Amino acid sequence: xxxxxxxxxxxxxxxxxxxxxxxxxxxxxxxxxxxxxxxxxxxxxxxxxxxxxxxxxxxxxxxxxxxxxxxxxxxxxxxxxxxxxxxxxxxxxxxxxxxxxxxxxxxxxxxxxxxxxxxxxxxxxxxxxxxxxxxxxxxxxxxxxxxxxxxxxxxxxxxxxxxxxxxxxxxxxxxxxxxxxxxxxxxxxxxxxxxxxxxxxxxxxxxxxxxxxxxxxxxxxxxxxxxxxxxxxxxxxxxxxxxxxxxxxxxxxxxxxxxxxxxxxxxxxxxxxxxxxxxxxxxxxxxxxxxxxxxxxxxxxxxxxxxxxxxxxxxxxxxxxxxxxxxxxxxxxxxxxxxxxxxxxxxxxxxxxxxxxxxxxxxxxxxxxxxxxxxxxxxxxxxxxxxxxxx
Length: 391
Known about the structure:
Elements: E1 11-15, E2 18-21, E3 26-29, H1 32-35, H2 44-54, H3 67-78, E4 84-88, H4 91-108, E5 116-120, H5 129-135, H6 138-141, E6 151-154, H7 159-165, E7 170-175, H8 189-202, E8 205-209, E9 233-236, E10 247-251, H9 272-285, H10 288-311, E11 316-322, E12 325-330, H11 334-343, E13 346-347, E14 349-351, E15 355-358, H12 366-390
Parallel strand pairs: 3-13, 5-6, 5-7, 7-8, 8-9
Antiparallel strand pairs: 1-2, 2-3, 4-10, 9-10, 11-12, 12-15, 14-15
Helix pairs in contact: 2-9, 3-9, 10-12, 11-12
């Protein structure tokens, strides 16, 4: 189906932060499959984990015990607020599970009227029907029937509006601590703390979508850790498999009390292959030295991009994000800028509010970061030249 506006680039292999096309060109990858290849391409540890498991067992039904699930679930609950985990194939499925978990929680407590999921402008939670309704992006909803009941959308980062909106029919508030698709906008620590308090006072659950911003990308294992608050439910994916499809919905025992036998399920979720790779990836992603490295590289990028913003105010309007989820808000069309970057053999992503996003592997070297800055600088020069020619 023609649902993608594809760039005419075909890659046949990758190594670390490099991608190689079928005709031999080499690109520096600062997109990482949209924050997926967090440990780089063809990471030896992940490759070996996959090979070892592939020789043993790929798939069995979830009607059987899967030891890899128990290992990865324990590893996740050991480093998070959560008591239990449901494994999925994708972030969107993790969001679906989070929504169902929140609504079922209130149902078992005798409050079936509490179905409303409150989200925020600019959010992105996936492409399934519930996920796009939770996001509220009109372009993603168009043509798929009327908006589903039980989803409310509020302005981004307005805690007074949120406090007024949370009420007796609210099941949960869902938020990305750092928006990705919405333009790399980070919520303040004060706002995350306020959200936690508002939910607590109203008896609503708090869901964090850390599919893109979690698992080391901000310099802590999860972005909400910067604020010292915890959610009741959290969706993760992307980096969890380092390129292999795996996601998870994490919950406290209290929040997950309604998810009993028969409440939910998945054919492929938590399959042995995914669990082996996920465990290998998580063992790397939890390392403090990786988080320290992320902060070092992010600090370098922030400093360098601030300099480029001063030199190219007609191109770069603002620098956003947190850690290695970086957004450059542009004065020139972001898709044109992405092409200028590709002309320099650099891959970056698009984003809302006319941003481009850099989501490089978390183990990007300082030398590779310098190379990326040089390529962004040349892209800025190209964008300026094109704008002047058009004028």
